[in-house]
């Protein structure tokens, strides 16, 4: 594997994660529990999709086949996507979305903090811009965890159930492959093991302050970096790619 190939796969993975997470958040548009939260979740979706556009555009340039970010988003099958498993899970109820967003945004906060110092200037620039957005995403999800966890018996139960269900997917966020190791030596990528401790500390603090029990580490779902996904990604892509698949290369 060459440096160019490794960098392409690495950037593609970052873009895929943002694209699928953004699409899932967009499903809340017009369905939020209150108007303010409807707008907030939609804005989170837009932040993710904007990040996906920047990353997939860079990935297309690295690929060198004349593709665009739209080609990468709409013309690949599910085994060619490398987004995290957690990002593709169905939205569930509001507590599930908040728990999922909290876990993902805490991970992204430490990930993009480190990537803002990447030796690759494009990655570093995207990471620096993303960090400003992710910081808000994390605070938004954290505050809602406090409200739900310390709210009613029902809201606490729903948040606890969501954390219990999502916990097995946290291991996938930190799995490293050959691309990571090659690019880490070049100071382009980061050692995900180094941010795992930071992630665990902050997540456990948020959960304790939300009166939520911290699940035990058991079996962890992994495989996204090999293109292995849950059954949910295929349904996401069916909806997301329908227009481009039905009318290839249509313009307006």
Structure commentary:
The protein is mostly helical and 252 residues long. It has one domain: Ferritin. The chain is built from twelve helices and no strands. Helix 1 crosses helix 9 and helix 5 packs antiparallel against helix 6. The longest helix has 29 residues. The chain is globular, with a radius of gyration of 18 Å.
Task: Present the secondary structure layout.
Elements: H1 3-26, H2 35-63, H3 69-74, H4 85-88, H5 94-115, H6 121-149, H7 153-166, H8 170-173, H9 178-185, H10 192-209, H11 232-240, H12 242-246
Keywords:
0% strand, single chain, mainly alpha, Ferritin
CATH superfamily name? Ferritin, core subunit, four-helix bundle
Q: Output the CATH topology.
A: Ferritin
Rg over CA atoms = 18 Å
* End-to-end C-alpha gap: 39 Å
Q: What is the overall silhouette?
A: globular
- Please report the first level of CATH classification, the CATH class: Mainly Alpha
Helix content: 55-70%
Q: Mean of residue pLDDT?
A: 96
User: How many helices?
Assistant: 12
Short description:
This protein has 252 residues and is an all-alpha fold. Helices cover 68% and strands 0% of the residues.
